[in-house]
Amino acid sequence: MTAAGLASVGLVAAALFSAIAALAGLAGRSRAARRLHHAAMIAGPVAGLGGSFVFLAWRVAPLSLGASPLLFHAPLVVDRLSAFFLLLLHAVSLMASWFGAKYTEDEQDTYPPRLVLPLTAVFVLSMQGVLLSSGVASFLLFWEAMSLSAFFLVMADGEEDSRKAALLYLAIAQFGAGALIVGSGILGAGSLFATFDTLATSVGLLSPGASTLAAVLVVFAFASKAGLAPFHAWLPEAHPRAPSHVSALMSGAMLKVAIYGLLRFTSVCWPDLPAAWGTSLLALGLATAMVAVIYANIAREIKRILAWSSVENIGLVFTMFGFQLLLRREGWPVLADAAQAAMFMHLLAHALFKSGLFLGAGAVMHGAHTGKLEMLGGQANRMPRLSVAVLGLCLAGAALPPFGSFVAEWMLLQAALTSLGTRNAHVVIASVAVLVGMAFVAGLAVFAMVRLFSFVFLAEPRSAQARAAVEPAGSLGRPIAGLAAAGLALGVLSPWMSPLFPVKLEVLGPSLSAGPPSSGPSGLWLAPALAAALAAALCLAWLIRRSPGSTLRTRRSHTWDCGQPIDATMEYTATGFSAPVRFFLRDIVRAEKHLVFRPVVPSNPWIRHGQMEFRKAGGILGRLYFPVARLIEDVGGWLKQLQNGVIQFYIALILATLLLTLWVAL
Known about the structure:
Elements: H1 3-26, H2 31-57, E1 63-64, E2 77-78, H3 80-106, H4 113-132, H5 136-154, H6 160-187, H7 196-202, H8 208-226, H9 235-238, H10 244-269, H11 275-296, H12 302-329, H13 333-368, H14 379-382, H15 384-397, H16 404-419, H17 425-457, H18 464-467, H19 474-492, H20 526-546, H21 574-577, H22 579-584, H23 586-589, E3 591-601, E4 604-616, H24 619-640, H25 647-665
Antiparallel strand pairs: 1-2, 3-4
């Protein structure tokens, strides 16, 4: 069979297995049906991973996988852009499904299998459909299925906070979907049944105003789904509430599908966006990353920290996207290609390490029955294998070498530094902003990952649940270790990874000084060089330690404690550790101190125990979303007055509408 045939079979089989998993999940009462669901959920990503890998590695030409009347006769098509995102999706869904097979069985009292299993399969199937759709109508159909399945999964545990988070997510998702429908209708000259090929022609017939309006609507739709500020408020609320393997899919895959939609529409309809668009997206992305990384440092629950970190990384993706748009429009295509390559590398790296961290958070919460940093600690002694895997993922989250995330940010750094030598004022100002913003974000990202790992795995346990935790089962721990290894391999093998990307990664030669852009040996070699140096240093230290004449000995002794027994009350709290961030950035954070008093003995309200808590004040929900919601409610209340029950009034409204329509039409 040819490479094209193998790729087609793999991708079609992946979609069919997802459909089988959905049907089996609907019959989830029996154990046999659940086993069939889990088997199909693992077999599908394996087939899809193989198909997309063959398509990319063998550089297969775009393929049509068939059409159906159910999809409005628009064929399912795969090209290099969609194949890259399919590779990403199937890598994440494979590990999430592997983890979820055990996790959903153990947590079925919290997350009902008859709800979670079929909806998870539909969620994956809808993302596959979005990436394969060549028609606008089928794209929108799968897009809405993705949003609705995620909505029900967020509130799967039935708690009040989960329902509120799901409704917030649904509201923003439907605003985005409405904008996408209107924008697509404008691009398709009033029809939603156009294909992406025909959109490229029809957009040229639009007036500049109509084209700009469509671009604004489309960018808003995908930016709100991806979590770009100020449309990000749903993400820190919804992601922590979903089952952990679904959180991994939402952060690792769904956000990337939104980026795919943005890239697909802009590359087809607006390949030459003005430089002002690039500057605006760069500014929004950089602001998003800077604000989100601050909140990642003050959040006190594992999955909320990871959710804010996802907002930060999506902000970096938009920064890279906007930077490459600006560079391309200003006439520096080599630098633009470098920034674009960094964006694709960061998309794949973030998908791997963030989905792994969400699975790791799920494993910790599964074992310790809490996700609050103040209640954890000491898990490295109780979960040694998991702690090693999560440590690797946290290093990747901090963009430290030699992980793939470091390579992506290093490539962006190269592009920004080299851009200083262009002597173009617009480009130089943007480059300086990127360098300053990246320095701020990178520093606080390290702080956030150190805080996350140390308060979960190091020191002494701070609660009875943490003391009773045990190492998770191998079926929970192995997917996490696999994602950590994949993130490390992405960085170490980056010089050889170009065939799997839609663009060339080897664009700029290594340089830390401003100068004209040049092609040459890529800075991608820095990561494997650092990995080799680190491995050599560790081997040398081990040999010295094990040599016969070595005088090095390990001594274990009790920690000096000023004569007092050491316990968890003597440790820093996560809130105290982040105090410098809250203090120096108090104008942004706006945290409030709350004193909470509880009776020591329930029968005596006069003797109370006091506790101080820091809470985020207001935020974008209070300053933007709630006022808009109140305005909509007020308008709805005013319009409700039209329902007065008088038939003559209704007939008069119909007549007025008819006259207005005739006047506009004629």
